[in-house]
Amino acid sequence: MESEVTEIVLSTRRLDKNFGSLVVARNIELNLPKGARYALIGPNGAGKTTLINLMTGMLKPNAGQIFLGGEDVTALEPQERVRRGLARTFQINTLFPGLNALEAVTLAVCERRNIAGEFWRNVAVHREAIEEAHDILAKLRLGDSCYQITRELPYGRQRLLEIALALATKPKVLLLDEPAAGVPQEESGEVFEAVASLSDDLTLLFIEHDMHVVFRFASHIIVLVSGAIFTEGSPAAIAADPGVREVYLGKRKHG
Amino acid sequence: MVPTDTISAPQLYLQSLSRWSAIEIAFWLATLLPFFLFPNYLSLASQIAITALFALSLDLILGYAGVVSLGHAAFFGIGAYAAGLFSKFVWGEPISGLLVAALLAGLAGYATSFIICRFRHLTLIMLTLGLGLLAFEVANSAHWLTGGSDGLQGVRIWPLFGIFKFDLYGYTAYSYSLAVLFLFFLGMRRLVHSPFGLALRGIRENLVRMPAIGAASRAHIRKAYTIAAAVAGIAGALLTQTTESAALESISFQRSADVLVMLVLGGAGRLYGGLIGAIIFMIARDQFSGIAPQYWYFWIGILLIVVVMLLPNGILGGLSKIFARWSRK
Amino acid sequence: MLPPVFGVLFDGIAYGMLLFVLSVGLSVTLGLMNFVNLAHCAFAMLGGYLTATLVNDFNWSFFATLPLAFIAAATASIAFERVFYRRLYRASDLDQVLLTIGIAFVSVAIAAYLFGTAQQPIQTPPLLRGAIDFLGLSLGKYRLFLIAIALVVTILLVVGIEYTRFGAQVRAAVDNQRMAGGLGINVERTFAVTFALGSGLAGLGGALAIEIVGLDPNFSFIYLVYVLIIVSVGGLGSIAGSLAAAILIGVSDIAGKYYFPELGAFLIYLVMVVILMWRPSGLFGRR
After folding, report:
1. How far apart are CA A82 and CA C204, in angstroms?
2. At what angle do helices B217-243 and B171-192 cross, to 10 degrees?
3. Each residue's pLDDT tens digit, A136-190
4. What interface predicted TM-score (ipTM) does this complex get?
5. Which of C273, C233, C235 is nearest to B134 (CA)?
6. Which numeric CATH code is attached to A8-249?
7. How far apart, in Å, are the Cα atoms of A230 and each of A222, A223, B282?
8. Where are the domains of chain A?
9. Taking CA atoms, what residue in C is nearest to B68?
10. Contact C269 B130 (CB under 8 A)
């Protein structure tokens, strides 16, 4: 049971989004307490990635608010939310193909440290930033391949690099969009270990389809269907919920 | 406490990326050859150096930040006219003329960067084209200031440092242009290996990812665009100062298109691409200048088609692929 | 008696209609295929030179050459699409710009070689010579013909897009390419046919343009600027947008030249920049 005193780090109020007559988010109310491990599940097209896009600012809602650490960030640009501690990874690798892993993470670190605008000194003089980038990569077991160009990395390593880039922003809340999506079986273990090793101070919300992963990592599950929260609760409660099973095993079809 | 004089492996690696290679040194030494081998071609050499500087400035926004501009000559022309008018109405000292040109072109770049940074794709291409054409029309119409299609008259440049006269032999012109080119090349090289250079490459590689790592991409693009405009202005000023004239050609679409072709030919995003492209283009055009201009554009057209279909990263890109394959053997 | 401003308006609209026929093809293919085809006006030039040659050297009737200009340009575009364009659908904007500029350069050089750099002379067909008096205005018959042709083209396009199966396929592919493919629509063939139609219209436009603006090898580039302005102002993929933008640009250009000759082409560039800043996808473009 969560105590009443637990700080809510990310919340949404009455979040709505539609594209014309297509409603992709309907009255979404969400509260993420600090250190939580929440899973967001739901059938394809339920609007899970859309919700992340709304929370991070890549999409503007039609109505509703988003609060980060108590501050209303609804009007803020995505990069400003990142600066306030909200980071995300992408379901499909959204990396810098021509940069090597060290350069990519160093860039993220430089941005966070506000030195990315400096054009008169070689990046190599920023020892601390580079060390920090290398440490993040090492923790994700990417240390030895950090000099490889991103597009030449195996897919599983690229997924880890996705996470590394997000971690470089020193987030307080991390939204993971199917972190192991597309990763071959042999490599997906690495990705989950990486997720498991993340600090307890970090609040996580992850989208996942694999129920084993969900039940292993999540302390709380939110089920999204057709843009609205269908139900939420502890893993045991969700597992036992007949409505959830119906939604997934498809007595009713969802597009 | 880690001793501050030791350098970590990752740091060393990043530092190694910016080390001067033997080929680079050879290249710059080779730029001195015209003084000894081609003394009759020093005017052409100085034109090449000026155009190379212009191509370098375009590379910053095109090759590094991914901004496709069809109107970059606007800044070249502003610099050219600024230097000319400065020498006509204030004084003819060349270096201060360069600074004035850089200032004015940079200001124009800064102002337009607010428009440019908000758009991508076709809209951006059209805006740069439109703004470039507008600049041309303004220069054309304001003939009380610019001389219109007759060009700016009465440009008199003082000897450099009071000693070196700009004469028909071209020694001063080439030394001056080459020195300025090298200086700005060094600056550009620094920039490309700086955190800002990394940010620009990030923008080019994946614009969508940038806000997700907390980057203010638009601010970065504005900065790059302003710097590129100022450097283009300096190139334009050099042209005016070494030829003692300024004409509409310097602000024309033709010049914007030519520099784009040169950069792509040599390979954008590789620092040296613009330089190589400028050298090849200008020498080829000089050789062709006897033949009717239509045939020049025929071959340039064929060249563009070939480069796009077969050599997407320009000549330097093709060369580096060959090197990579060769070194793997 | 109508004041002269209406005469300027009439000329502007006629000019705009010509620009519409030249531009609509590019707008649709840009919106559909996302392919920046700067060689579009080279196809127009092909139609123009074909008409000029057939009329001047082979004594064909002007009207008979028009369908041929369309067909020739359409056929040429199919060849180019097969050989070059098809490979660059996923390439960067810059690559597409450079390839098509290269093609345009080559076309200019070939035109100069075959036809010389002077303007092509053309005899206006006797039916279209002269003008009709209307409320004190002298409405040129050729310009009336232009407006009529453009209206017919517009109607055919709108009917074609809205009411035929092919049109539905085009609309589906514009909206969602992957989905359209999934529904069994042969997207590649739809592209190729649309592109051919668009280039054919350009060829027709080129043939019609000779009388109004003249034809020389530089046509490819001079009118490319106008066409690009219209396409970006009107909005990619929008027929209504192209029409509106073409009339706007046509009238601005003619009015500008008539009332403010010192400004030169300043006005239309300014119009374009302002509209693009206000509506980056064009007046009727999809956001």
Report:
1. 54
2. 170
3. 999 888 888 899 999 999 888 899 999 999 999 999 999 999 988 888 877 777 7
4. 0.89
5. C273
6. 3.40.50.300
7. 8, 5, 68
8. 8-249
9. C94
10. yes
